[in-house]
Amino acid sequence: MYPHSGPLGCPCPMFALTKFQRPRADFRQKAVLPTLASDRGHSQILEAARCAAYSGSMSGQTEGGTGVAATTGMPDCPRCQKPLPLCVCDDITPIESRIALLILQHPQEQDRALGTARLTAMHLPDAVLKIGLSWPSLSKALGRPVADPSRWAVLYLGSAKVAGLPTSNEIVAINRKGEMEDDQQAILRNIEGIVLLDGTWSQAKALWWRNPWMLKCQRVILGPSSPSRYGKLRREPRRDGLSTLEAAAMLLSSLERRPDIAETLHGSFERLLARYRKVRIEQPALVSKPRPKRDFRRRKRA
Hints:
Blueprint: E1 36-37, E2 43-44, H1 55-59, E3 100-105, H2 117-123, E4 128-131, H3 138-142, E5 152-155, E6 171-174, H4 184-189, E7 193-198, H5 201-210, E8 218-222, H6 244-255, H7 259-282
Parallel strand pairs: 3-4, 3-7, 5-7, 5-8
Antiparallel strand pairs: 1-2, 6-8
């Protein structure tokens, strides 16, 4: 879903550590996500904690943190952390937005090649990307005080579907029961920030349940008129499943009534997909998918 995507880099390091514990895994290792400064004069700061237990499958880095894919020897871009043949950083255009963006990425999100969370954040100077499982509050996750969490929207589909609601809108605010809120226009008009959950569907669900403060925010769901641009490159379990970048583009451009936001973000996404298709033919080892984890809940009947 808006699940998916990967640290930003540059000579001047700035970082923050997100702490959480989980059995048999050490998540205490810090990740350095430096400031990105381009010739255009804009800067980007992403804060995150990198999960040491999954760094191999997520980025292919060695223990020394050299940024080189262990299996291919291909260096990663220090900013987007994708293999250099997939990097589109040179074409990133900064976007000024009145609505803040917070992306919470599950530490086991592994799709380094096609992930879009970091690419999305690089476009928005004030966007914040955090990697972890839980945070005490929205303010802690964001890194600054939030006066009214109810003016922040959390995008989480769950079992809710816009298609099953009496509306033709593509963005719908719902309550805790999954029902439409009464004054849709007023609610969406007052949104000052968006929280996106980056990971697979099950990972997004874990983030939702591990952070009860999200219930203080306004839950929204999407009913896009077109399926994800991923197409056959990544199969979504539902038609309304989008990449993190596409979800951000849809929400920001609609809530701010600025189609240029969607055009800019979609442009970067299309360039990434074009490079991915080319690399998949010429250097397939760079875009091999991580091995899916076995689901022990599904056992054959005797």
